[in-house]
Amino acid sequence: MARESPSGANGAGRQWLIGGVRTPFGKFCGGLRELPLVELAQHVLDELFERFPGYRERLGEMHVGVAMLEGGLMVPARQIAFAAGLPETLPTLTVDRACCSGMTAAGLARRALRDGASVTVALGAESMSRTPRLLHETRWGRRRGELVVEDLLMLRSPVAGTSIAQYAGHEALTRGVGRTDQDAWALRSHQRYFSAAAAGYFDDEIVPVATPAGPVDADEQPRPDVTAEKLAALPTVYDSPTVTAGNAPGLNDGACALLLGDDAAAADAPSAPLAVISSYMQIAGGATAAVYLPGQAIDGLVEAAGLTPADLDVIEINEAFAATAVTSLKTLAGGDAGLERELAQRTNVNGGAVAIGHPTGASGARITLTAARELERRDGRWAAAAICGGFGQTDAVLLERVA
User: Fold this and answer.
1) Same domain, yes or no, for 188 and 317?
2) What is the DSSP string of 208-225?
3) What's the confidence (pLDDT) of residue 9?
């Protein structure tokens, strides 16, 4: 378990999430398919520094989370920095912790602030539509026989030897979370998303993107016609006992950028910073443990802060599958059914990845931004966000709203 001490410990100042933006999340081979990953990332950076003028010049480090390296893209963080016109002296880092990557970037950005940087950027980006198929055994030539082509988007685990959907479903069932529970959560994810969208909750978060085929200004994944009956009628996928195309997110494209700063940078912001990043944690378990690890990570964060899960005003758990959110909440509640119901009312209140989509490298940054914005909207104090990925790993952050 890797845990960083709360903000302000050991004499350090606070680390602030000052603001952030994201692109719409595109459907697989949808409106964003023609934009390379570097262009998606450049787009959110341009908008971020448009909203926060003067911070480009104060930037000390940039960390970029990517899970499916598009077309063998070399050192994407560095390419993104050049594309966005950032100083050539800016240190950058590309990180791959699968779905955790965007939140890992935020954790590294926070660490850079604790080490003396004044302003950092954490960015997550993914173009799953442009993820190539791999043609093996061609480097040295193959004179006879079939060539093996691997599709990385089948999302198999070479560690567990099964599809991710298969073991996620089995792990959920062993913890009392069945298909009906997962379908109900998927329906609620959509209902909450459309309610939030109608109220304009995403208007300041989403930056429209110009593409050769025309502008994309809204998330493409959400399905307004989802019903409980339609979800129940869907077959399971990838030999999973519970996971379907309806209670899992799609393969998506998108990017999200977060601006972090120290006390001085937060004081200079043109608008009130969203929250202090109080603490950050990484944990890991067995190769098939991801479906419940976010609940364990959030529990560890609140315990270290002297809090309880009931103290959280906002919870974001990435819906890698609906099974992940439901199983993690059950884990966080520790078998208390009443507490579990209470926590569910505060979790993914504007919908989650089952509705919004899950561009793997970007989602960790997205749920961090979503949690902070909802904490501000509710005038609450504490929020936690957690995301699983990488064959039994999880990242989590604890956010505090400070007046």
Assistant:
1) yes
2) -B--TT--B-S-S---TT
3) 45
Selection from 69, 285, 250, 223 nearest residue 165 by Cα: 250
**Model confidence pLDDT, tens digit, residues 146-176:** 778 877 776 776 766 778 889 899 999 999 9
Query: Does a structural domain hold residue 156?
Result: no
The number of distinct structural domains making up the chain is 2
pLDDT tens, 267-296? Answer: 999 999 999 999 999 999 999 999 999 999
Write out the catalytic residue numbers. Answer: 99, 358, 388
- Based on the fold, state whether residues 28 and 175 are members of the same structural domain: no
pLDDT recorded at residue 173 = 97
User: Are 299 and 190 contained in the same domain?
Assistant: yes
Segments of the chain scoring below 70 in pLDDT:
1-12, 70-72, 154, 157, 159-160
On whether both 62 and 196 belong to a single domain, the answer is no
Task: Retrieve residue 371's tokens.
Answer: 């949690």
Residues 6 or more apart whose CB falls under 8 angstroms from that of 256 comprise 20, 21, 22, 23, 44, 102, 123, 124, 125, 362, 365, 366, 369
Q: Which residues lie below 8 Å from residue 214, measured CB to CB, with a gap of 6+? A: 31
- CATH, residue 236: 3.40.47.10
Q: In angstroms, rounded to a whole number, what is the distance separating the alpha carbons of residues 137 and 203? A: 48
Label residue 211 exposed, middle or buried (CB < 10 Å: 0-12, 13-18, 19+): middle
The verdict on pTM exceeding 0.90 is yes
Here the tokens at position 131 are: 């993820």
Q: Residues 6 or more apart from 208 whose CB is under 8 A from it?
A: 24, 215, 216, 217
Domain residues for the domain of 112 are 2-132+252-267
User: Phi and psi (nearest 5°) for 39?
Assistant: -70, -40
Whether residue 147 lies inside any domain: the answer is: no
